[in-house]
Design brief:
This protein is of the alpha/beta class. The chain has eleven helices and 13 strands.
């Protein structure tokens, strides 16, 4: 299997999530209650975007710390029409009662003009045309978890944060980060995992591959061969331009470890949300079976029948039909679940 095909398989679901919703909003982010805050993790500057109800930025409320999926994509993408929303749901669903907190990717500008990004809306180093070295060195599970532990501590010190309720939420890869974060941070009170595969990234890749493989299983076998090479750090594995072997290993191996092991250790309430047409659906169903068997009463599962990875409906050809209906419905359900806890 070529490296191009391999990379496409990995990134497809995340691309849909990040660039399908090209609904630019007029005016500036600040007009919609967005604030830009910086803090430090070790020696790294961490950029946060806080979304609050307009006029209530300093009103004490619980926070929802949200981790998006993969790729070095700026949180705020701007063009001559305005800016693209950070998430494809209406943030007003939450901001009456919560402050939403989004974390920028390391080494990626928090806001950036769309015309200077790649076709996949990725930020590349203007000097090299590649993913920034700063991002490459930090794009792995352990970095994100350790950083987010400190972000929660930072948030708890803010006068506008009700530290009695600290919600963490993540979509796709972000769900894995939040699952592990909940096992190491005592500040977390609630966890929302959306569209995440509790058996890891490679399990999702295999599910995607099986869907279009040939009768000989050529692509699936190539993926298994790749995985074996990755585990053994073979120097001839394919990886994205600009990365080195160790960086690719830390990233993909870490996110391919079964997050169900983290979920089992979580003591606080957990909501697991996913579309039944998502490649991760059966894995979440299996996790539900496991949690029932192990008498884990702190889990709630919300499968969305007939919807895919980003809560979109599918047409007759199985292609996603982008809109914000599914996302808004999911967000409303998350909010309702939080109100019951």
């Amino acid at each position: 299997m070529s490296s191009n095909l391999f990379i496409r398989i990995i990134f497809l679901p995340f691309l849909l999530f990040n660039i399908t919703f090209a609904f630019a909003q007029k005016h500036k982010p600040e007009d919609f209650g967005y604030r830009f805050v910086q803090t430090l993790y070790k020696k790294d500057t961490v950029n946060l975007v806080i979304v609050s109800k307009k006029g209530e930025a300093m009103k004490k409320k619980p926070v929802i710390l949200f981790e998006k999926g993969s790729l070095p994509i700026p949180l705020i993408i701007e063009d001559d029409r305005g800016f693209f929303p950070i998430m494809p749901f209406d943030t007003k669903i939450f901001t009456e009662d919560y402050h939403l907190v989004f974390i920028s990717k390391p080494g990626v500008p928090v806001r950036y003009p769309a015309h200077e990004l790649s076709p996949r809306m990725e930020y590349n180093d203007p000097k090299t045309g590649l993913v920034p070295q700063f991002y490459q060195e930090r794009n792995h599970l352990d970095y994100y978890v350790s950083r987010d532990v400190q972000i929660l501590k930072f948030l708890k010190k803010q006068p506008w944060v009700d530290k009695n309720k600290m919600v963490i939420a993540g979509h796709s890869e972000g769900g894995t980060i939040m699952a592990k974060l909940a096992t190491v941070s005592k500040d977390v009170t609630h966890v929302i995992s959306s569209g995440q595969n509790p058996f890891g990234q490679m399990a999702t890749i295999m599910a995607q591959t099986r869907a279009y493989d040939d009768s000989a299983g050529t692509y699936a076998n190539a993926q298994f061969e790749f995985w074996e090479k990755l585990v053994n750090k073979s120097p001839d594995i394919p990886f994205p331009a600009g990365y080195n072997l160790e960086q690719q290993y830390r990233y993909q191996y870490g996110f391919s470890l079964p997050a169900i092991d983290y979920f089992k250790r979580i003591k606080v309430p957990v909501l697991v949300s996913y579309g039944t047409k998502d490649n991760c659906a059966l894995y979440n169903d299996y996790m539900r079976i496991t949690m029932i068997r192990e008498q884990k009463k702190n889990f709630t599962f919300l499968p969305y029948i007939g919807l895919e990875h980003n809560y979109f409906k599918l047409d007759e050809q199985g292609k996603a039909i982008p809109d914000n209906v599914g996302w808004n419905n999911a967000a409303k359900d998350w909010k309702a679940w939080l109100e019951k806890q």
